[in-house]
UniProtKB/TrEMBL annotation:
Taxonomic placement: Eukaryota, Viridiplantae, Streptophyta, Embryophyta, Tracheophyta
Organism: Rhynchospora breviuscula
Name this polypeptide is given: Reverse transcriptase zinc-binding domain-containing protein
Record-linked InterPro entries: RVT-Znf (IPR026960)
Segments forming domain Reverse transcriptase zinc-binding: 141-229
Length: 399
């Protein structure tokens, strides 16, 4: 849009969105095409990585960038002064800078710096001013250079660790790897992302309808997702995770072994599938069912020989059937080899998730963990029924 401003599509954007403000100062407007909205969104990144190549000085505003590092550029410059170009503070006839004008615009201390250090406009005959990409020698922007620059400026080492464990892990299906890649690139069709493209689509989370559905909300902070992580084999509390998805993933998997990474990836995958079933097929989001399917994926990846696991496909390991009317509670316990157990309570009303609860306790084996989960669930639902004046709730467990 900057270097090829005579192309038709650039002229269309100019006419519709510039509003006499120019490329660097124009803003997003309601109903703008996705190309323009994404351009404005990433404009600050380009602003930090481009610079003017001085030619005749006709296009380069004096106050557009720090030509000399010690200049104290006027912060309250008038609109007229902001439009003054390099060529206007240079006397081409006498081949010298207009010192009085330089001092007025930039301060007395800038005069010596300009005279001694700044290339004179027109030094190369026929050369025009050009905005160039500052990240390579040629000055030409490429998508590859832009990507590497963005990774470097965001402290890309953390993301490299993420890819080291996720992309090269052999026991994760390719479609799940691609899904994780799209997630880290914020390329999933979440409600907030869709709203940015189509204004009529609500950005609110379709499951809880309490917050915008941004990536970390969908996968970590929404109530159903929180329950999956807490009640699953990883036993993760997601309350204190960073809001940025890449940072959150890095925080979770840093220093973990391959088995942990595999379980993490399949948990993310099953949360996404369950979310889509809720949105597009009106199926209840069942955290217990999600956890069961994750265990089945991991068992298949390890080629476990136990018949009860090996002979069941992921599709066969279906969750409890939730009735379409009345109150129901599903109780499930989880246990790991450190003898830590978790209990999850899911309360449904007329087939829809109404509320949930979480508890942690110690248990010597998985059977005891399920028994303690049932006991805790009964105590929890009794108190809850009393508080809400409810007389009849069906309780389901896999004990």
């Amino acid at each position: 849009m900057i270097s090829e401003d005579q192309k038709i599509w650039v002229q269309v954007c100019k006419g519709k969105y510039y509003n006499n403000l120019g490329f660097w100062r124009s803003v997003n407007v309601a109903g703008a095409i996705p190309l323009w909205r994404q351009t404005v969104k990433r404009r600050d990144f380009f602003r930090q990585n481009v610079k003017w190549q001085l030619g005749d000085g006709q296009k380069v505003p004096v106050l557009s960038q720090p030509w000399y590092t010690n200049w104290q550029v006027a912060q309250q410059a008038s609109r007229k002064d902001r439009q003054i170009t390099i060529a206007q503070i240079f006397d081409a006839d006498n081949n010298e800078w207009r010192s009085e004008e330089v001092a007025r615009l930039l301060g007395e201390e800038a005069v010596t710096g300009v005279v001694q250090n700044v290339q004179k406009p027109g030094a190369v005959p026929g050369l025009k001013d050009k905005l160039i990409w500052d990240y390579n020698i040629s000055g030409t922007y490429t998508v590859k250079d832009g990507y590497h620059c963005a990774v470097a400026r965001s402290g890309g080492q953390g993301n490299e660790v993420t890819w080291k464990y996720i992309w090269h892990w052999k026991n994760i299906q390719p479609k799940v790897k691609v899904f994780i890649w799209r997630l880290l690139a914020n390329g999933l069709p979440l409600a907030q992302n869709m709203h940015q493209r189509i204004q009529s689509i609500s950005p609110m989370c379709p499951r809880c309808n309490q917050e915008n559905e941004y990536p970390t909300h969908c996968f970590f902070f929404c109530q159903g997702s929180r329950l999956v992580w807490f009640g699953g084999d990883l036993g993760i509390r997601t309350d204190s995770l960073p809001l940025d998805m890449k940072e959150a993933v890095q925080h979770i998997i840093q220093g973990k072994d391959e088995e942990f990474i595999k379980t993490f990836c399949y948990t993310m995958w099953e949360i996404w599938l369950a979310r889509n079933d809720w949105v597009f097929r009106q199926k209840t989001f069942n955290p217990t069912g999600v956890c069961r399917k994750v265990r089945a994926w991991c068992a298949q990846a390890l080629n476990v020989e136990h018949d009860s696991v090996r002979n069941q496909s992921v599709q066969e390991m279906i969750p409890y059937e939730v009735a379409s009317d009345g109150w129901q509670m599903i109780v499930d316990g989880s246990w790991d080899t450190s003898k830590k157990a978790g209990t999850a309570f899911l309360v449904y009303k007329d087939g829809m998730l109404h509320t949930m609860g979480l508890e942690r306790h110690d248990a010597d084996d998985s059977f005891l963990a399920e028994a303690l989960a049932l006991e805790a669930g009964i105590n929890w639902i009794q108190a809850w029924m009393t508080d809400h004046s409810i007389c009849n709730v069906q309780i389901f467990t896999d004990l």
